[in-house]
Each structure stands twice: as C-alpha cells, then as structure tokens.
Amino acid sequence: MKPCTLAFSTCLWIFAVTAVTDKTAHADAISDFYTGKTVRIINWAEAGGEYDVHGRLVSRYLGKHIPGQPAVVHQTMTGGGGIVAANYHFNIAPKDGTSLAILVGTLALFQAFGDKAIKFDAAQFQWIGTIASTKENVVAWHTSSVKSFEDLRTHDFITGASGRSSPSFMVPTLMNQLLGTRIKIVPGYPGGSQINVAMERGEVHGRYNTWSSWKVTKPDWLRDKKITVLVHQALAAPADNPGPPLLIDLAKTEDDKRIFELMAIGSEMGRPLAATPGIPPDRLQALIGAYKKMLADPEFVAEAAKLNIEIDPIIGDDMQKLVVRALSTPASVVDRMKKLLE
Fold first, then answer.
1. Do residues 260 and 164 share a domain?
2. What CATH number has the domain bearing residue 151?
3. What percentage of the chain has pLDDT greater than the value 90?
4. pLDDT of 244 above 60
5. Domain limits at 173?
6. Is residue 312 part of a domain?
7. pLDDT tens digit string along 71-125?
8. What tens digit of pLDDT does each residue of 173-211 get?
9. Are 164 and 238 found together in one domain?
10. Residue 75: which H helix or E strand, with range?
11. Distance, CA of 214 to CA of 139 (rounded, Å)
12. Do 310 and 261 belong together in one domain?
C-alpha cells in the first residue's frame, strides 16, 4: 500500500475500510474453500471409550461453526496405542485443513522415549484444542482394604493394566520404584471396560484411569462410592475432587518430579484435536475459531452435560506449549525413567 498523502482522518478511514475489506475477503476465501467439502476427523481409539465419545461429539458440532459449513465425518484408525493414526495424520493425510485427528495425549511422551515406530514430530502438529484435561488417577474398588495413598505403602494392591507401554502400567510401576508403593500390576487386559469387570469380580483391587472417564462412563460408581480415588496423576487436581494427593507433590527429588510431570502432561492434553502440519495459517485460525464457537454453542454445552463431559478447554498455542514442555524434558531424566520402567 502506498503512503497516504491525504488528511490524517481520511487516511485512517481508508486504512480501516481496507482492513475490513481484506478481512471480509479473507473470510470469504475460507468459506469458499470449505463449502461442499467433507472434513474427516480420525480417532486413534476404539469405539465406546472416552476418546470415541469426545470425537463423535466434536464431529456433530464442529462443522456448524467452520466457514462454509462442511460436512464432518468421524472415522476410527486404531493401532500402536495411537501411533498408527499419528503417523498417518503427519505423513499421509491431506495438508489442506480437511483432515483433523483426535490424537492420544501421550504422543510427546512416546516421542521423548524415542519409540522407533514414531514417524512424526509432535511439535509440528497444528494443535487446535481439547475440551478439558483428563486428570488421571489410581482408584480402589470399594471392597479393597486400601482406602488412601498411604495404604498403598503398607498393603499389597493388585491393579489391572493394558499394555506395558500404557500409562496404566507405567505410572503404577513408577510409583513402586519412586514412592515405595506395593502395587502388583497385571497387564494384558484389552481395555478399561475389561478391567472394570475384573474389579467387580474381585480379580483386581483397582485400576489406573482418568477422572473425566469415570464421570462419563461410570457416574453411578462415583455416586454410589464404588471407587475411591487414591492419588491423582496430573499437573493440578480436578476442581471437583481436590482431596487426594498429586504424584508430583509426593516426589522426593526434582528429577522424580520431572518424571511424574512428563507423564502428567499427557493427561493435561486430554482428548486433543489437531490439524496436520503444513495447513495454511488462515485455515488453521478458522478451525481454532470454529472450535471456540463450538464450545460456546448452547446445544453442544447441553449435550456435553448429558454425557458428563466437563468443558474446561485448552486451545491452540497453550496446547503447543505443553507439547514443547514435554519434549524439553532433559535426556538424563528420560533415560532414568526408561530404566525404572524396564
């Protein structure tokens, strides 16, 4: 734009009109791009779990708030504990803003560990937002003799877990190594629902899960006090369950604290929605704007309430900072953590 040589007030008017015109043209271009298109949301998790519930909820409402109102479809892509979906989203999915993904919150942890199956850089995903952090915890079934965290140091406690690379195995293992708990971990359960059944049958005394998942999938267990939260694995306790201690506060050294912090960042990420690397910046901002509007949509809020889904979002750059924070964990801390888990 050439320098304005007219009266100052006239120049201001011209600049304002130009800015509004540019903004309108920009919005029109976004709307034109998305009109008639289909946006696909890939979800790494199997049907029925909390990730799936979140993904389908977002899929029902996000398109309404994207300029051009594209159709939004939800598709499952399981495998590798979320790595298959992340690799696809990073390397193969279209880089134009029509491919989004609900990714596993522990991607940065996997990357910090140097998992050879990883073909992505978590810091390069374009993070859009998460409805709320999940706040993970260890719970005891109501018939267990363990009623508090301190009891875990004096009583044997059997917990079910899925794979050895899952938080349900890793966190209790770290608790045993760093905090002196007496948790016996039984891995190999296909998923959380099978561990729940094992608790009901008395095969295990408790399990590792997220506070948000209990509210979504087993609100009756919370209401009827069928489970007791022993300890939270999170950066901060959930507002509606602040009593149990945080693992990061129980840590004996700064390095121990960094280990629990690295694990906790995954729960802080919640059920995150991300665009691919390389998406045009204006479309990314349009998607972030649509996500914010979706979270304020009265119909979305009402359905989330029916599903017992808390809305306490982390958006865009704040999610990016969490990923960078995880990836900046000193190599010496990561190496020590890996040895503790061997």
1. yes
2. 3.40.190.10
3. 80
4. yes
5. 136-266
6. yes
7. 999 999 998 889 999 999 999 999 999 999 999 999 999 999 998 999 999 999 9
8. 999 999 999 999 999 898 888 999 999 999 999 999 999
9. yes
10. strand 71-76
11. 10
12. no
pLDDT for residue 12: 53
Of the candidates 211, 208, 182, 195, which has an alpha carbon nearest to the alpha carbon of residue 308?
Answer: 211
316 occurs within a structural domain = yes
Q: Are 48 and 194 part of one and the same domain?
A: no
Same structural domain for residues 251 and 317?
no
Q: Which helix (H) or strand (E) holds 31?
A: helix 8-34
Residues 45 and 101 in one domain: yes
The CATH number for 100's domain is: 3.40.190.150
Other beta carbons within 10 angstroms of residue 271's beta carbon come to: 29
127 and 149 within one domain: no
Residues ≥6 apart with Cβ < 8 Å to 243 = 229, 237
CA atoms of 17 and 6, how far apart (whole Å): 15
β-strand pairing of 183-186 with 157-160: parallel
Domain count within the chain: 2
**And the tokens for 287?**
């998607």
Residue 257 included in any domain: yes
Nearest Cα residue to 330 out of 255, 263, 234: 255
User: CA–CA separation, 188 vs 40, rounded Å?
Assistant: 32
For residue 101, give both structure tokens.
């993904």
Q: Which helix (H) or strand (E) holds 207?
A: strand 206-210
Res. 11: pLDDT tops 60:
no
Residue 244 in any domain: the answer is yes
Mean pLDDT of the chain: 91
SS3 71: strand
Cβ atoms of 293 and 340 within 8 Å: the answer is no
Q: What is the CA radius of gyration of the chain?
A: 23
C-alpha distances out from residue 198 to 46, 141, 258, Å:
20, 10, 32
User: Six-digit token pair at 11?
Assistant: 């120049």
**What CA–CA distance (Å, rounded) separates 146 from 142?**
9
**How do residues 269-306 score in pLDDT, each as one tens digit?**
999 999 999 999 999 999 999 999 999 999 999 999 99
79 and 182 inside one domain? no
Give me the amino acid identity at 165. Answer: S
